[in-house]
Task: structure prediction
Amino acid sequence: MASPVANPRHLTGAPLPDTRRSSPLASRTLLVAGGVAAIGLAALLAAAEAPAARDPDLARLLRGMAMIKAVLTLAALGVVLWRLGHPISPGIRAVYLVGTWALAASTVLIAQLVLLPAAALALHAGEIAMLLAAWRDDLVAGRLPGAPRP
Result:
């Protein structure tokens, strides 16, 4: 932290600029590029594995659940794209990015009926991580930055 003498903004109370934050365009580009890479990696893994569900009814049920998860993933993608358009701390940004990538990759794996336990774990871990990050995120929680937390 800079000393008050070397920092004239200390006298006015103006916040110091955070140079660690990236631009909204760079964050959004990273989100989309990482999502495409996660989906591609999941598709490669799915091609190398045999489907886990041999029962046609179970396969139909799991693919239907994958479609629901795809809708949830697209909704999360939209919310994260909106959130990355505003100033955000690097830690919360990282959780949003990795969480969205995990949702995308696990949805592909579930739709292809491969690595189901790992895909389910990744999907739920991504969801929980993003919900916890949103809980700590001032803009999403409707708090002013720096306001006391309940």
